[in-house]
Amino acid sequence: MRRKDGGSLLLREAEEGDAGAVLAYLNQVGGESDNLLFGRDEFAMPLEQERQWIASLRKQEKSILLLGICEDELSSVASVSAFDRRERIAHRAEVAVSVKKACWGLGIGRAVMEALIRFARGQGLEILQLDVRADNGRAIALYESLGFETLGRYRNFLKVQGEYFDAYCMNLYL
Description:
Blueprint: E1 10-13, H1 19-32, H2 47-59, E2 64-70, E3 73-82, E4 92-99, H3 108-122, E5 127-133, H4 137-145, E6 149-160, E7 163-173
Parallel strand pairs: 4-5
Antiparallel strand pairs: 1-2, 2-3, 3-4, 5-7, 6-7
Helix pairs in contact: 1-2
């Protein structure tokens, strides 16, 4: 795939051997943005646990951890996680997306979201759900352009350096 700046973007499913790179990436982006649920070095999962989590996702039909790689560097981590195998909610999944700050504005977020939506449709999922900080206008505009609808607002969803921020719950009906 091509980014807006003409560079390349490779999207692929994470493998167990990617666990260290994924943890390093998550701890880095946690410090680059206040829009995530964790800050710098707060993603404290042991390496073996991350490997096991990736292995478990690879075994689930309706879940995926997707890596975005630009010029041999991890630039995005995103996932679709099925809520449960229980029949009544097996049609739903949660979406999580992050893009390294140096890669913002290159179209990576859109490419990753479109790939996750294609994956979800291929798995027979019917609803994708995500939470986004209410003042993150760029992300909200992206999600709305992909068909996500705002369902409601969570008051005081995140607390960053003593300040509370609201978030929207958004759904995409496939």
